[in-house]
Design a protein that fits this description.
InterPro entries: Di-haem_cyt_TM, Mopterin_OxRdtase_euk, OxRdtase_Mopterin-bd_dom, OxRdtase_Mopterin-bd_sf. The protein has 434 residues and is an alpha+beta fold. Helices cover 39% and strands 12% of the residues. The chain contains 11 helices and 10 strands. A 5-stranded mixed β-sheet has the order 2-1-10-5-6. Strands 3, 4, 7, 8 and 9 form a 5-stranded antiparallel β-sheet that branches. A hairpin with a 5-residue loop joins strand 1 and strand 2. The radius of gyration is 27 Å and the shape is elongated.
Length: 434
């Protein structure tokens, strides 16, 4: 044990240039265990919801078929299960909540970091091996959440500036953050509880600016050694951060609620791009997918396979089949969603026509040649749902080219990228084929 003690003393005597005493320059009297714990409590409630909805969204991509990204996650693989088709708005809820709540918590994350920032400049950074482990978990916690926020926001804005695959980085980054978050909660929960109990909430919220004082010195050194006079109360600090969170929520939630679509100022792909039956948001346009007019012209055919012999149908023949209409949402990983009225042929009717009346799964292929989602595997409950369609029309009009003309898949609770557009082939599979 003598060597570690000598190491701490050497580090203490030789701080890096400019770091000595920097923590003492942060002199706000608001900093202390109580305010830090209030921010921490909000994050303790909100972050698990963001984590859970994020993992559920990954499961919605049916990783058991190898189509969730990243595909190879080793022992971080989630337990396989069939993603439900009821309620139809399930993925719209989980993905919308994941993105909206994640954005709303950003001011809380930054406020929490502000409240503890003097501790980040402590020197030496640790005086024991236990503190080394604690600071390491803190580094992973702070780095992890800032990485998740940055990559998530860039993905929402369609600004792929990463130089790496977003899905892979976001998934593994989430698990790094989860591990650090659990460790941090286990270490700090007793202090959070004691700090919240140390000051009555009602009394603190009624304290005037003139009466606002620093808390007593604490073991973690959060309280400023020489605090300045308060320029705002703790109530005003909480109101400022909470107000910013509500403002971000107001500028985000319109991406998931059709009547508020124009208020989604922070999410360009969640806003209303046009008017008329096909005027709702689109994630990947036909031009971006390199879909040509000749690909969708009179020579287009839908190929159905899996039975004794393949079946080919043109659009006129599909329109002559029994049509079904359903109002279903479509939701994308960026968080936007919309509900529209779709008309087309039930997938289970197409399966029967192909000679596979009880399909276990189906591989749906698109005319799109490139891209991560030019095909998708649908599981049995998605194929057999009465509202699962090969849609030919939307809101009483033919699909536009950007929305998948001549035919696209629409399935309740299915992620938008798996509601394949410009469908050219559906291969139905039985259990013996799996």
């Amino acid at each position: 044990m003598a060597f570690p003690r000598r190491l701490w003393r050497v580090l203490d005597r030789h701080p890096p240039p400019g770091i000595a005493g920097i923590g003492r320059r942060w002199r706000s009297p608001l900093r202390g265990p109580w305010l830090t714990s209030v921010y921490g409590l909000v994050l303790l409630v909100g972050l698990p919801l963001v984590i859970i909805t994020g993992l559920l969204d990954y499961a919605a991509y049916s990783p058991q078929f190898g189509q969730a990204l990243p595909r190879d996650v080793g022992w971080l693989r989630l337990p396989p299960f069939d993603w439900p088709t009821r309620p139809a708005w399930l993925f719209r809820l989980t993905q919308g909540l994941h993105v909206t709540l994640g954005i709303m918590l950003i001011p809380m994350v930054l406020a929490k970091l502000w409240s503890v920032i003097p501790k980040l400049f402590d020197w030496p950074p640790a005086r024991s091996l236990a503190q080394v482990l604690e600071r390491l978990s803190l580094l992973l916690l702070v780095g992890g959440i800032l990485f998740q926020i940055a990559t998530g926001l860039l993905n929402i804005q369609y600004a792929y500036l990463f130089g790496f695959d977003f899905y892979t980085a976001h998934y593994f980054g989430a698990w790094v953050f989860i591990a650090a978050f659990v460790a941090h909660v286990a270490l700090k929960l007793p202090r959070l509880v004691s700090a919240l109990r140390s000051r009555p909430v009602r009394a603190e919220l009624r304290t005037s600016r003139a009466a606002t004082r620093a808390e007593p010195p604490d073991p973690d050194g959060l309280v400023a050694a020489q605090p300045r006079p308060a320029t705002m109360t703790r109530r005003e600090a909480l109101a400022l951060v909470g107000g910013l969170s509500l403002l971000l929520g107001a500028l985000t939630i319109g991406q998931s609620l059709d009547p508020l679509r124009r208020t989604a100022l922070l999410l360009p792909r969640g806003r209303q791009p046009g008017h008329g039956p096909n005027g709702f948001p689109v994630n990947r346009a036909a031009a971006a997918a390199a879909i040509r007019d000749t690909d969708t012209g009179p020579d287009w055919r839908l190929s159905l396979s899996g039975g004794k012999r393949p079946v080919a149908l043109d659009r006129t023949q599909l329109l002559a089949l029994p049509q079904h209409t359903a109002r279903l949402p479509i939701a994308c990983v960026e968080g936007w969603s919309t509900a529209q009225t779709w008309t087309g042929v039930r997938l289970r009717d197409l399966a029967a026509l192909a000679g596979v009346p009880e399909p276990a799964s189906a591989l749906v292929r698109s005319l799109e040649q490139a891209g991560l989602f030019n095909q998708a595997v649908l599981q049995a409950n998605q194929l057999r749902h009465p509202d699962a369609l090969l849609a030919l029309r939307v809101n009483g009009a033919d699909l536009s080219l950007d929305h998948g003309y001549p035919a696209r898949v629409i399935v309740p609770a299915l992620p938008g990228v798996h509601c394949t557009k410009w469908v050219t082939d559906i291969a139905f599979r039985t259990r013996s084929d799996a």
